[in-house]
Amino acid sequence: MDAENSESGILKVQGVELKYGAAQVLRGVELEARKGEVMSLMGRNGVGKTTLLRAIVGYHPISAGTITWQGEQLGTMPPYERARRGIAIVPQGREIFPLLTVAENLQTGLAPLSGDKRQIDDEIFTLFPVLKSMLRRRGGDLSGGQQQQLAIGRALVMRPRLLVLDEPTEGIQPSIIKDIGRAIDYLRKKGDMAIVLVEQYFEFARDLADRYAVMDRGQVVLSGTRAQMVESDVLRRLSV
């Protein structure tokens, strides 16, 4: 088995550092996410979680270390090339297009695909039935929870192999939080996708995690498998 095949479906973040001007935001971050698993990344506000996700998808260049996906170093690869390699992000704040319809928002996710793959999979409407009933409504007319489902659906349209979710429960009503949790669990169980979940809602992150990591001041300070998690240690790091 060659090196690339042996690392199929594995994201490795090794010794990653990132600076904004003179400010160092990430310090030697180590992280791994595997196909068929959820990596739950936790931490207080401002510790570098979103910055790390944006580095993974190519929005922010790193100053040291490596980010490797399926055995390939991403280096300075631009976001659209990472998308073509199956890396998708659901950003914090959703960032849907408010003046486009639900259907048009979903179609924007087709951009990295080619040929007969440029079609919306019915699986998205199975996961989030409300989207099918609102295809002609403008994204800005949806509730916050519906917009979050749309943002996840838009990412899934591109058939990702690495799905990165940034605070998907933020500002969402409990019933839709449950729907999102069920969708993530379904995607994990399909076994063809690695999932990195940034989340402050501890119970949500814990219940979905196969692996977990906790960040503080730009570093990973706790990590391991779900079975190794000492909840009191994690909660202490999450408290303000």
Keywords:
34% helix, Rossmann fold, 4-stranded antiparallel β-sheet, alpha/beta, globular, 10 helices, 240 residues, 26% strand, 6-stranded mixed β-sheet
Structural commentary:
The structure is a single chain. The protein is an alpha/beta fold and 240 residues long. The chain has one domain (3-95, 161-238): P-loop containing nucleotide triphosphate hydrolases (Rossmann fold). Helices cover 34% and strands 26% of the residues. The protein has ten helices and ten strands. The strands form two sheets. The protein has a six-stranded mixed beta sheet with strand order 6-7-8-3-9-10, sandwiched between helices. Strands 2-1-4-5 form a four-stranded antiparallel beta sheet, with helices on one face. Helix 8 (174-190) links the parallel strand 7 (162-166) and strand 8. Helix 4 (102-108) runs parallel beside helix 7 (144-157). It is globular, with a radius of gyration of 17 Å. Mean pLDDT is 93; it is low at 1-5.
Mean pLDDT: 93
Radius of gyration: 17 Å
The CATH topology annotation reads as: Rossmann fold
Relative strand content = 25-35%
User: SSE string, helix = H, strand = E?
Assistant: HEEEHEEHEHHHHEHEHEEH
